[in-house]
Amino acid sequence: KAGVTQTPRYLIKTRGQQVTLSCSPISGHRSVSWYQQTPGQGLQFLFEYFSETQRNKGNFPGRFSGRQFSNSRSEMNVSTLELGDSALYLCASSFRDRVAHAEAFFGQGTRLTVV
Amino acid sequence: AQKITQTQPGMFVQEKEAVTLDCTYDTSDPSYGLFWYKQPSSGEMIFLIYQGSYDQQNATEGRYSLNFQKARKSANLVISASQLGDSAMYFCAMREGYNFNKFYFGSGTKLNVKP
Fold first, then answer.
1. Chain A 21-80, CB below 8 Å of chain B: which residues?
2. d(CA B87, CA A11)
3. Where are the alpha helices (DSSP H) in B2-73?
4. Which of A72, B10, B27, B75 gets the highest tally of CB atoms within 10 A of its CB?
5. 3-state secondary structure of A45
6. Euclidean distance between CA atoms A75 and A97, whole angstroms
7. How far apart are CA B70 and CA B51, in angstroms?
8. CA distances from B94 to A33, A97, B52, B78, B91 (A)
9. Looking at the partner chain, which of A31, A98, A103 has a beta carbon nearest the beta carbon of B47?
10. What is the tens place of the pLDDT at every residue in B14-52?
11. Is the bond preceding residue A8 a cis peptide, omega within 30 degrees?
12. Bridge-partner residues for B19, per DSSP?
């Protein structure tokens, strides 16, 4: 069974540009959530999608957006990049169910560097 | 208040010895799940073990066990027979309720296994 796939693995962008990151969940998983990891702030929740609907959103500016497609693949977009957006972006895939059975598996992440 | 607290920024352990990584959590939701993830330098978050709030017994997965003390709100990870490959960051995480796939993460513990 394939794991969570994130593309690209590494990305270098210039301030002011925009970027799109992709996450393909484990087959059969309908929930995808996104996290930003930085040395200063640690791991912070961005948003979660289930069946193409955003269910939950973290405390990030509107420059951060996302979507989910009918095949459960998700993309996140960051517009007008700032230096502080440099981070490891991780997505997690879950088969949404009761908490007791809701394991979550992460991808390898996309390391974004804004210069 | 912090949802997840990991008080050990770094720890050393001798190869083949056992080590305990501490985690305390804060929630008023009776239904929650507690997770431990390992993050090597490559960045991928590797799922290790899960404990549900209603589980009566402590979770175990191979060399990993979770010492769940509900009244004290602690969920410590015990790694038995440490191996050099266990050197990594370890994150404790929590998810609350039935309706959200949002993780709260601790700040992590950097474990170094000495030969």
1. 31, 33, 35, 42-43, 45, 48, 50, 55-56, 58
2. 27
3. none
4. B75
5. strand
6. 22
7. 11
8. 14, 16, 10, 17, 10
9. A103
10. 999 999 999 999 999 888 889 999 999 988 899 999 998
11. yes
12. B79
How far, CA to CA in Å, does B60 sit from each of A3, B37, B76?
A: 22, 14, 12
Identity of the amino acid at B112: N
Cβ pair B101:A90 closer than 8 A: no
pLDDT digits (tens, 9 = 90+) for B51-90: 989 888 999 999 999 999 999 999 999 999 999 999 999 9
Which whole number is the average pLDDT over A79-100?
Answer: 85
Residue B16, Ramachandran bin (φ over 0: left; ψ between -120 and 50: alpha; else beta): left
Q: Is B3 within 8 Å of B55 (Cβ atoms)?
A: no
Q: Which two tokens stand for residue B2?
A: 């912090």
Strands B10-14 and B109-114: parallel
